[in-house]
Amino acid sequence: MSLFDTLKRNWQQRQLQGTEWSFLFDQPPPHEWVSLDCETTGLDTRADEIISIGAVRIHERRLLTSQRLELLIKPEKAVSPESIRVHRLREQDVEVGLPAPEAMRRLLHFIGARPLVGYYLEFDVAMLNRAVKPLLGIGLPQPKIEVSQLYYDYKFRQLPPYQQHDQADIDLRFATILADLGLPTREAHDALNDAVMAALAFVRLRDLRAD
């Protein structure tokens, strides 16, 4: 961990509201991560809402699919027809969902101190941080691992030297990554499916890095 990361982590611990969430700063179980994905009412991290979360634990090279989390969240605003076409979650589907604070509590206890894995994770974390800050006083403190960055680094190392520059043309679309890694695909825009596919890519890329 860099000095900056250490200082940031110390600051986050000081900002944490109460002792209920102190376990988020424990040492994570060795060789474990949590892959997660969120489906939302849109792409505006300041105004749109999370309506479903899928998460699965990873231990070493195995996906612990028996230790998965699927949550529906009831939004405060109506679900637009445009978002329904993407994730196929209708108003009546999310009507039975959890209130956002309860969903965040369940998610935080599921994650614990484990590092987070995901594809386009920055967006998911930004959405989640809006919901967890009222509980924690801070955003998610766990380390974050972006699958597309791992893939970029892997492909970049394979390029001949004359192509290794800042603007190297590497296709980072999720479907492309999965296909190139020889991984099976599930139906997209389902939170748990996307979390599982990101986890598979993460495990595969770690294997390739170790070769």
Describe the protein's architecture and organization.
The chain has 211 residues and is α/β, with parallel strands linked by helices. The protein has 8 helices and 5 strands; from the N terminus they run αβββαααβαβααα. It has helices spanning 3-15, 81-87, 91-94, 100-111, 121-136, 147-158, 174-180, 191-210; strands spanning 32-40, 50-59, 62-72, 116-118, 144-146. Strand 2 and strand 3 form a beta hairpin. The model has no long low-confidence stretch (mean pLDDT 91).
Low-confidence stretches: none
User: Helical proportion?
Assistant: 40-55%
Q: Using the coordinates shown, work out and report the CATH topology.
A: Nucleotidyltransferase, domain 5
The coarse silhouette is globular
Set out the fold topology.
Elements: H1 3-15, E1 32-40, E2 50-59, E3 62-72, H2 81-87, H3 91-94, H4 100-111, E4 116-118, H5 121-136, E5 144-146, H6 147-158, H7 174-180, H8 191-210
Parallel strand pairs: 1-4, 4-5
Antiparallel strand pairs: 1-2, 2-3
Helix pairs in contact: 4-5, 6-8
